[in-house]
Amino acid sequence: MIDDNFESDIADGAKIGARLRAVRKASGLTLEQLAQATKLSRGFLSRLENDSTSLRLTTLIAICRALALPIGSLFEAAEESLIRGDEALPLVPVAGGEVVEWLLTPSTESNVQLIRASYPPGAGAGDELHELDAEVEVVHVQTGRLIMTFSTGEVELKAGDTLTFRAREPHGWRNPDESVTAEVLWVIAPAPWGLRRRTSSVDPNSN
């Protein structure tokens, strides 16, 4: 076994343990199998995956070779996109041009869409049910009420309720309240082609 007690050649503060662990598990390797492949101790590898030890660059190269992992990928910045509250992309105007839906994930993100919605009393998607080119849709009501309509019936959601359903199932929605605005979060995965847009209308008789 290679001596585990050595000084680090890796830049201080580099947190690579979680990435190494994720790649090892994705490869279907146990710590014991990786230890055998690299001739490092299982205990050392465990400490490394928890970022509680240091290592030489040559040792890291050996681990990456065993995992068929380009060493540079361990130090690449995580892919992320921050959208501030005032940067959300407005999606749908209602009567009078008031925006009621905002896209909170990048329009280029293909895996998921998060949408924040504010539906005034009586607002709805119209009488015709629609479906989305996605697998799953989740709606969470933060305040107010929302009625989801399906071909098989309706589901009333109150503040704190969350409904998950197949996005390709024809569905519609409306705020049945006469005085309270419904604040809602929508999650759609994967993101449907283009920007998700709803046909909104205000129908005070939709109760």
Outline the structure in words.
The protein has 207 residues and is an alpha+beta fold. The chain is 17% helix and 28% strand. The protein has four helices and eleven strands, in the order ααααβββββββββββ. The protein has helices spanning 17-26, 31-38, 42-49, 57-66, and strands at 89-93, 99-103, 113-119, 123-124, 136-143, 145-150, 153-158, 162-166, 171-174, 182-189, 201-202. A hairpin with a 5-residue loop joins strand 1 and strand 2 (99-103).
Strand numbers in spatial order across the main sheet = 1-2-3-10-5-8
**Measured on Cα atoms, how large is the radius of gyration?**
25 Å
Q: Roughly what percent helix?
A: 10-25%
Biggest pleated sheet: 6 strands, antiparallel
Question: Counting H and I runs of at least 4 residues, what is the number of helices?
Answer: 4
Overall SS class: alpha+beta
- The shape, in one word, is elongated
**H and E order:** HHHHEEEEEEEEEEE
Proportion of beta-strand residues: 25-35%
Uncertain regions: pLDDT < 50 for 5+ in a row?
A: 1-9, 195-207
How many distinct beta strands?
A: 11
Overall pLDDT score: 82
List the helices and strands and how they pair.
Elements: H1 17-26, H2 31-38, H3 42-49, H4 57-66, E1 89-93, E2 99-103, E3 113-119, E4 123-124, E5 136-143, E6 145-150, E7 153-158, E8 162-166, E9 171-174, E10 182-189, E11 201-202
